[in-house]
Design brief:
The chain is α/β, with parallel strands linked by helices. The protein is 27% helix and 20% strand.
């Protein structure tokens, strides 16, 4: 069953039309750097922060970017949203996000990561959280199942897309920092072990960077570094709302850390502009991160980065 009822869909349809979301189809907006040798193409954004029903400003922002993505010359294999999908984890916010994705996203796969704003749920002005972890996580599970087609027994999960493994890590407690249980880290270790020596990189995503993960951050880092020289790992995160810059992509041996800019909050121009993210293109010997202003429909080549695969077969 769809996450939004027919009545809710009609309401949202009217809202969307009033804010001019229904753009006409047009020519391709962008093309890959090397279409003939492209193995995988996906879009990576973070921190959409879809807000409540009375404030729709971030919905058209997302819809405009999805329009740009959907008109790409080569269809995206996936859309990764690295957490803080919503502003307050409210049901209406999930409804709005679901409707935008269902009517605007044509990627073959949607990979939503839960962020602290999603898992904390509704809060008072002083930050007091009103609901428990299970209640807030259930809304995320429903969104995964009904919008992304992902039915998982645990809040962490993986998907294989065109032979490439995507691993989604999520917090298992209602805490300020992400909490990853030993079971979750052990599960990640087993997945990475199964891909070591295979020649293809693995894409791991968590909303929080290592610095905002709890005491188990060292364990997570150790697991990823364990496969140095045998497996290229890309760790994509959000949370800090870091604008594009020299520190956006940092390589440490066979592990590359990617800090995604904030899509839903930011400035009207410059490296911290809203509506930005990466088009990620995987080739046999490298992964190319192409910075793009999706709402402006333009590349930002000064922030591009090609990462050579050290463990490619």
């Amino acid at each position: 069953m769809n996450i939004i009822s027919k009545r809710t869909a009609k309401i949202l349809s009217v809202v969307f039309s009033l804010i001019s979301l229904f753009a006409l189809a047009g020519p391709p907006t962008y093309a890959p750097a090397d279409a003939d040798n492209l193995r995988l193409s996906f879009t990576a954004i973070a921190d959409t922060h879809i807000d409540n029903v009375f404030n729709g400003t971030r919905v058209p922002l997302l819809a405009e970017g999805l329009e740009d993505m959907s008109k790409a010359q080569v269809k995206n294999d996936a859309l990764l949203i690295a957490g803080d999908l919503t502003e307050g984890g409210l049901q209406w916010e999930y409804y709005k996000l679901a409707y935008a994705l269902q009517t605007r996203c044509d990627a073959d796969n949607i990979l939503p990561v839960s962020g602290n704003h999603d898992i904390w749920g509704p809060r008072l002005q002083n930050g007091t959280r009103l609901m428990n972890y299970e209640y807030n996580a259930d809304k995320y599970f429903d969104f995964l199942r009904n919008t992304a087609g992902i039915d998982t027994a645990t809040i962490y999960f993986s998907r294989e897309i065109k032979g490439y493994l995507f691993v989604i890590l999520n917090s298992e407690r209602l805490e300020d920092d992400t909490y990853l249980s030993p079971a979750q880290i052990g599960w990640l270790d087993s997945l990475l072990a199964s891909r070591a020596g295979g020649g293809k990189p693995v894409f791991v995503s968590c909303h929080h960077p290592l610095a905002s993960i709890g005491d188990e951050a060292d364990d997570l880092y150790a697991v990823m570094k364990k496969y140095d020289g045998r497996l290229d790992i890309f760790f994509l995160t959000g949370h800090y709302h870091t604008p594009f810059g020299s520190g956006s992509i940092v390589t440490d041996g066979s592990v590359t850390f990617v800090a995604l800019p904030c899509y839903g909050k930011g400035t009207a121009s410059g490296p911290g502009k809203t509506g930005t993210g990466y088009c990620v293109e995987a080739y046999d010997g490298e992964v190319l991160f192409r910075a793009r202003d999706f709402t402006g429909g333009r590349w930002l080549p000064e922030y591009d980065r090609a990462v050579a695969l050290t463990a490619a077969g």
